[in-house]
Amino acid sequence: AALAQHKTGDIVDVLGPLGSGFIIPSRAKRVYVVAGGVGVAPLVFLVSDLHRKHIDLAGYQVFIGGRTQEDLLCSNEFTDLGVAVLTTTDDGSAGDHCLVTHPLDKALDRTLADVIVACGPMNMLACVAGIAEKYKVACQVSIETMMACGMGACLGCAVSSRTETQHYLHACMDGPVFPAEVLKF
Ligand code: FES
After folding, report:
1. Per-residue confidence at 14, pLDDT binned at 50, 70, 90?
2. CA-based, 20 to 30 A from 148: which of 80, 98, 137, 163?
3. Pocket of ligand 1 contains residue 18 by CB under 6 Å
4. Which is it for the CA torsion 175, 177, 180, 185, positive or negative?
5. Are the beta carbons of 146 and 178 closer than 8 angstroms?
């Protein structure tokens, strides 16, 4: 709301960029992009950025899930870039009547991806991570946590880690994008 009150030309203080983003290896041709609800936002940014860099998006497939039709956001942003989109809703009001992870699982069963990228609710990400592990496909997830400082001071964004060296990782500095296998969901 505070940002929305600003007009073009207003000056705001911005600190960033902070943390890490998605990294799509140049050899990755088949990429499955999985979004849940408002988690679609950074994925629009990612795919638009790749498009701007003239990366071939022919092998990209976007899966967008939401509770209802109103929760399916930004599919036009992807189709405008020529990227195939498959939608699902929990209540069947639009797209396939299932969780977004179902068509992902089916797609991987048909054709393995080089990498999966995902953003959405934690339980969706946990499911995506499990599917990626099942098919042994590299997976990056962007998580949302409570963040107060954004620079490693408040420790409010700690998440459990599966790595041997650290019990906790910090979404603000180590993430918010993580290889799925380092997180304990
Ligand atoms: Fe403060 Fe991450 S937001 S440590």
Report:
1. confident
2. 163
3. no
4. positive
5. no
